[in-house]
From TrEMBL:
<keyword id="KW-0808">Transferase</keyword>
<dbReference type="InterPro" id="IPR051939">
    <property type="entry name" value="Glycosyltr_41/O-GlcNAc_trsf"/>
</dbReference>
<keyword id="KW-0677">Repeat</keyword>
<protein>
    <submittedName>
        <fullName>UDP-N-acetylglucosamine--peptide N-acetylglucosaminyltransferase SPINDLY isoform X2</fullName>
    </submittedName>
</protein>
<feature type="domain" description="O-GlcNAc transferase C-terminal">
    <location>
        <begin position="33"/>
        <end position="191"/>
    </location>
</feature>
<dbReference type="InterPro" id="IPR011990">
    <property type="entry name" value="TPR-like_helical_dom_sf"/>
</dbReference>
<dbReference type="GO" id="GO:0016757">
    <property type="term" value="F:glycosyltransferase activity"/>
</dbReference>
<dbReference type="InterPro" id="IPR029489">
    <property type="entry name" value="OGT/SEC/SPY_C"/>
</dbReference>
<keyword id="KW-0802">TPR repeat</keyword>
<comment type="pathway">
    <text>Protein modification; protein glycosylation.</text>
</comment>
<feature type="domain" description="O-GlcNAc transferase C-terminal">
    <location>
        <begin position="208"/>
        <end position="390"/>
    </location>
</feature>
<dbReference type="Pfam" id="PF13844">
    <property type="entry name" value="Glyco_transf_41"/>
</dbReference>
<keyword id="KW-0328">Glycosyltransferase</keyword>
Amino acid sequence: MHPRSGIALCSTMYMDWGRRFMRLFLQYTSLDKNNDPERPLVIGYVSPDYFTHSVSYFIEAPLIYHDYTTYKVVVYSAVVKEDAKTNNLRDRVLKNGGTWRNIYGIDEKKVASMVREDKIDILVELIGHTANNKLGMMACRPALVQVTWIGYPNTTGLPTIDYTITDALADPPNTKQKHVEELVRLPDSFLCYTLSPEAGPVCPTPALSNGFVTFGSFNNLAKITSKVLQVWAKILCGVPNSRLIVKCKPFCCESVRKQFLSALEKLGFESLRVDLLPLILLNHDHMQAYSLMDISLDTFPYAGTTTTCESLYMGVPCVAMRGMVHAHNVAVSLLQTVGLNNPVAENEDENVELAVQLASDITALSNMRMRLRDLMVKSPLCDGSKFTHGLARVCIQKYMVSILQW
C-alpha cells in the first residue's frame, strides 16, 4: 500500500469510529450559553497523565503560567495512581487560584455534567485515543469550544472536538492527513517542555574517552520498526567501530532481548556492538544514561517527543527525518524550534548520511554537546510563559468566533 493511501485509510477509520461513537452520546449532548458578558472565561484541562508520565512534561507549563487573574482554570484529573508530581501540580494550580477536580472512576456523562456546572467555556483534552481517555465526556459537548492537544498524533474522529493545537512543522499546510478538527498552528512548536530538575549536569561526549562513537535510542520499542533497524544498520556500517545503545522497558525480559538482537543480526548487526538497557526507575539515573551516547537516533514514522527533548537537554544531538504525518514530524518541530536544522533528513538515505557526518567530527560533537542545553533553555521550546500566553490567546480567539456564530 502506498503511504498516502494508508494515511487516507487511517483518517477514514477515525472518522467512521467518531460517527458510530457519537450515537452513544447524542441524547446527552447539550450546551448552555454564557449570558453573562462580565463573567471571566473558564478554561478546563482534562487528562489522566498528571503524574510522572512523558506527557506531563508538556502539560506543566500551562498549569503554571496561565494568568489566573484574567480567567479561571479548572483541571479535571483522571490519574489512576497519583504520585509526587500529581501533588506538586495540584498544589501549584490551587495556589494560583485554580480548581482541581478528581474524576477518576466517574462516569463520563457525569463528568460532562460537572463541566457544565463549572461553566467551562474552553475545554482542552490532552489524551486523544490513549489509555483512560475521556472522549465520551467530550462527545457530550459540555463546552462551547472543545480542543485536543498534546496526547495523540492523529484526529480524534469526534465531530464535537473543534480544534487541534499543532504547528506548521508537525502539520505542514500541505499535509495529506485528514482531521475532523480544524488545525490551529502555533507560531513556534505546539509543545512546551518543562525541564527535569533531577537531570543533573551535561557530561562530556563519551567518544572523547571511548575512542569510538555511540549511537542511541531511548524510544518506545513499538516505534523501532524493521525499517528503522535497517537504517540504523546502515549507519553503524558507515561508522567503523561505532556502537548502539537502546533502552526501553521490555528489555527487562530476556526473551524480548534475544528477539531484538536476533532481528539486528539478520540485518548484519554484530550483537557485540549493541547494548540493551531496561527501564531505569529514578529520573536522575534515566537522564544521566544519555551520557552513554554521543548521538541519538530518532524513530520513524512515529518520532520521539519526550525522548527528543531529554536528549537535547542532556547535550546529545538527535538525527530526525521529516515525514508525511504529524507523528513523523514532531521531532523535526522540536529540533527546529531549538534552532537545529542540520540533523533533519528528508529521506532514509539522507538520515544515514547525516548520522555518519555527525559522527565523523568528534570535536564538533563535543562543542555541540556543551552548548545544546543552553540553546534549548533559551529557545521558545522552554519558554513556558510566552507559550502559555500564546496558547490562551489562540483559544480565546476561537471562543470569540464561536460566540459570534452561535
